[in-house]
Specification:
Layout: H1 25-46, H2 54-64, E1 67-68, H3 69-76, H4 80-92, E2 96-101, E3 104-112, H5 117-134, H6 140-161
Antiparallel strand pairs: 1-3, 2-3
Length: about 170
């Protein structure tokens, strides 16, 4: 069979730029890397019984303790219905508990359950594995430089978006 060099390459794995992205090669690369990172993270988390994004909600609860559901929605920067669905699934799995706020019975507090401690360790391990997979072949200095550069990019984007997270 003859190799047809005029056939388009697999766009999902090759760095070729679409013509409309020629003015933004870094933005195109960031988008592709973010997409692949999210897919890889999703595969790792699936083994833990989590959907993508649920780990961020759990990380927030593990670090902050009980919070009002309205505050969690703001912290997650997601649609309230999306957070509610996430909480329903996590509650069914025994990872979170919702209860009325004793200071305001109209509000709902959300907290990680004691049973979610094992999940905490599994999520940490999954993120460590994701980090190693993502940065394979990069030395410590390159990793530090990439982290520094991504922090600058994040600062640029969150300033433009007017939605910079508190550090």
């Amino acid at each position: 069979m003859k190799d047809d060099s005029t056939a388009p390459a697999d766009a999902g794995c090759v760095g070729g730029l679409p013509s409309a992205a020629l003015g933004g090669p870094v933005s195109h690369a960031v988008s592709r890397v973010a997409r692949l990172h999210r897919i890889t993270a999703g595969r790792m988390l699936k083994g833990l019984g989590l959907y993508p994004g649920q780990e961020f909600l759990m990380m927030h609860l593990w670090d902050t303790g009980a919070v009002r559901q309205s505050e969690l929605i703001k912290a997650m920067d997601l649609d309230p219905s999306t957070v509610t669905k996430m909480l329903q699934r996590l509650e069914q799995a025994g990872h979170v508990r919702r209860r009325p706020d004793p200071d305001d019975r109209r509000a709902v507090l959300v907290e990680a359950t004691d049973g979610s401690c094992a999940l905490h360790d599994e999520v940490r391990s999954a993120w460590t594995g994701l980090e190693e997979h993502t940065l394979a072949g990069l030395g410590p200095a390159e990793r530090a430089e990439l982290t520094r550069l991504l922090a600058k990019v994040e600062e640029n984007l969150c300033t433009e978006a007017g939605d910079c997270p508190a550090r």
